[in-house]
Amino acid sequence: MKVLIVDDSKAIYMMVSQMLKEIGHDALWAEDGVDACNKLASEKVDLILLDWNMPNMSGPEFLEENGAENITDAPIVMMTTENKPDFIKKALQLGAVEYIMKPFTSDILQDKLELVFE
Ligand SMILES: [Mg+2]
Fold first, then answer.
1. 113 alpha carbon to ligand 1 midpoint, in Å?
2. What is the pLDDT of residues 79-108, one digit of tens each?
3. Domain regions of the chain by residue span
4. Which of 33, 56, 94, 113 sits in a 20 to 30 Å window from 75, CA-based?
5. Which residues, other chains included, contact 20 with Cβ-Cβ below 8 Å and sequence gap of 6+?
6. How far apart are CA 89 and CA 8, in angstroms?
7. Ligand 1 center to 87 CA (angstroms)
8. How many angstroms is it from 7 CA to the middle of ligand 1?
9. What's the gap in Å between 54 CA and the centre of ligand 1?
10. How far apart are the CA of 9 and the centre of ligand 1, in A?
11. 2-117: CATH topology
């Protein structure tokens, strides 16, 4: 499976892509929502892991853009340090299928992927 990691932290990208590699998936990096739109114009991915806070275009802004412009059909999992019910509700309303709390372990990520694709 090909996974697009959208996060302004390269350290997060490196960590999560390593976890994905260990369970047999490939990862691509976009550093914000604008970069994600650009990457998705030429790359087909199976899943998107989306950060909340990013410059240029945040996670929620990317979800809104995708709702209006149909940028991708891939399921989108929000990665966030926010566990407030309002944040989670907003992400789901905007079209994310799941959310995962940062920081997370490889086991948690794998469980989440199974949940999304079951
Ligand atoms: Mg961020």
1. 21
2. 988 778 898 899 999 999 999 999 999 999
3. 2-117
4. 56
5. 3, 26, 27, 109
6. 23
7. 15
8. 6
9. 5
10. 6
11. Rossmann fold (3.40.50)
- List, in sequence order, every beta strand (DSSP E) within the chain: 2-6, 26-30, 47-51, 76-80, 98-101
Q: What would the pLDDT profile of 36-85 be if each residue is shown by its tens digit? A: 999 999 999 999 999 999 999 999 999 999 999 999 999 999 998 877 88
φ and ψ at residue 57, rounded to 5 degrees: -145, 115
What residue type is 89 in one-letter code?
K
CA of 52 to the centre of ligand 1 (A): 6
Helix or strand holding residue 114 (H, E): helix 106-117
CA of 12 to the centre of ligand 1 (A): 9
